[in-house]
Design brief:
Distance between the termini: 37 Å
Strand order of the largest sheet: 3-2-1-4-5
Strand content: 5-15%
Oligomer: single chain
CATH class: Alpha Beta
CATH superfamily: HUPs
Number of strands: 5
Radius of gyration: 17 Å
CATH architecture: 3-Layer(aba) Sandwich
Length: 230
């Protein structure tokens, strides 16, 4: 167990729920950050709150951003949500659901929170295996951001470096799900869908739904959101 708190980005999806559990295993306390940036799948905000309550996070901050700053994506109203014909084509190109500089913005704000709180570790559920091809989920980006973080902060310059923790970066979706189940993560509280109904029911056809479905199927586990192994 480390002596300092962790800052964890919690979107409300299964990846961030798993990362939160991993951070809790190694840190005495956590500061969870969720961003409201005009996303059409805003159901994830209530899921993030439920996940944090369930995992005993006492400091969960929902940070509103000017929606115009992250416009231009299908996730923020800039066009229709893509419906891939098959799982095989996902990640072959950068899709319209890419939100410009999203992880750069989120991690920069997390960096400020971490330095103020004296947190050495910032956790993000970035994944470069079963993912949509977003450039800001790649190991190269994370490595470059960590270098910048150590150069741009007082603590980094004074020899107390901040680390960007990406425990899921090289895991398949099935491996992530199994890891979370082993730690008792309740995936019924999560939302992965980019275009859910008003009640939060997943559409089942967006790229994120397809990746989630394949992950549960490969893990041999029933997805609690659909009630059947898919």
């Amino acid at each position: 167990m480390k002596s300092t708190p962790a800052v964890v980005l919690v979107s409300g999806g299964l990846d961030s729920a798993t990362v939160l559990a991993l951070a809790a295993r190694d840190h005495p306390s956590m500061i969870a950050l969720t961003f409201e940036y005009g996303q059409r799948h805003s159901h994830e905000l209530s899921c993030a709150a439920s996940i944090c309550r369930n995992q005993g996070v006492s400091d969960h901050r929902v940070i509103p951003l000017d929606a115009s700053l992250l416009a231009g994506s299908a996730l923020t109203g800039g066009g229709e949500i893509p419906r891939p014909e098959s799982i095989e084509v996902i990640g072959s190109t950068i899709p319209d659901t890419y939100v410009p500089a999203r992880n750069t913005v989120f991690l920069s704000m997390a960096l400020a929170v971490a330095e103020i709180a004296g947190a050495a570790d910032i956790y993000i559920g970035a994944n470069a295996i079963d993912f949509s091809g977003y450039p800001d989920c790649r190991p190269e980006f994370i490595s470059a951001f960590q270098t910048m973080a150590r150069l741009a902060t007082k603590c980094g310059v004074e020899g107390v470096p901040l680390s960007i923790m990406t425990p899921l970066i090289n895991m398949t979706k099935a491996e992530i799900i199994q890891c979370g189940i082993d730690m008792g993560v309740d995936y019924s509280m999560t939302s992965s869908c980019y275009d859910p109904s008003d009640s939060g029911q997943p559409c089942g056809s967006c790229e994120s739904c397809l990746l989630r479905a394949e992950g549960f199927a490969e893990a041999g586990v029933v997805d609690p959101l659909v009630g059947a192994s898919v």
